[in-house]
Amino acid sequence: MPPRTASTRADFVAAAITFVDEHGLAALTLRSLGDALKLNHTALYRHFKDKDDLLVAMIETVITDIVSIELSPRAKPRARLLQLLRHCRASLLQHPELAGAIVAVSTTLPTAHRFTAMVCNELEAMGLQGSAVPDSYQMLESYVMGSTIFDVAGTPRHLEQRRVRLRLLGHPLFDEVSRTTADVEALNERAFERGLAALIDGCVASL
């Protein structure tokens, strides 16, 4: 991570996200971030109480990106819901080291509540009512967040690790989809899309 000029809270948060993407969450401390930026780490304490405070700010920034998506105004609710959930997964895949932390920390953040509201708005627009709305939200949240965290587990070698595991099965069909890490990545995305479509269809099946 090259030295950069950082002076505002937002600057430091952006720098911390880049640092974690490159070095991993375990490597992040206020001191290590200051060293990477060629700054005295005490400058960070003007903006953050500690690492946990910085981590919350990082997660809020990522979730803000997720909820800032402009959903297609002319699209049907199902298409809008797919657009939102795909964007959520894509954002998490961009920051695999933060994915698990996002699930653990985001419950208290207003931006996370905004995401919940956006999903529920589309579910209601699809015709869901009563307990079907929170039930369906819970299914979709668990699937999108859980499958993405599973898919990036072991980053940055997660794709190679899964490729090796699939090859060890000795099954020709699995051999076909695990020749390269690109094959494994494509398998992950196909499986995600099929599962997401099936879940959404299941949500509306009882209407």
Can you describe this structure?
GO terms for molecular function: DNA-binding transcription factor activity; transcription cis-regulatory region binding. Residues 6-66 form the HTH tetR-type domain. This protein is mainly α. The protein has a domain at 72-204: Tetracycline Repressor, domain 2 (Orthogonal Bundle), CATH 1.10.357. The chain contains 10 helices and no strands. Helix 6 (110-125) crosses helix 7 (132-152). It is flat and about 60 Å long. The N and C termini lie far apart (52 Å).
CATH class category of the domain at 72-204: Mainly Alpha
Output the radius of gyration.
20 Å
CATH topology of the domain at 72-204: Tetracycline Repressor, domain 2
How confident overall, as mean pLDDT?
94
Number of strands: 0
**Major sheet summary line:** none
CATH architecture of the domain at 72-204: Orthogonal Bundle
* Alpha plus pi helix count: 10
Structural category is mainly alpha
Q: What is the chain-wise order of helices and strands?
A: HHHHHHHHHH
- N-end to C-end Cα span: 52 Å
Percent of residues in helices comes to: 55-70%
Q: Short description, anyone?
A:
The chain is mainly α and about 210 residues long. It contains ten helices and no strands. The model has no long low-confidence stretch (mean pLDDT about 95).
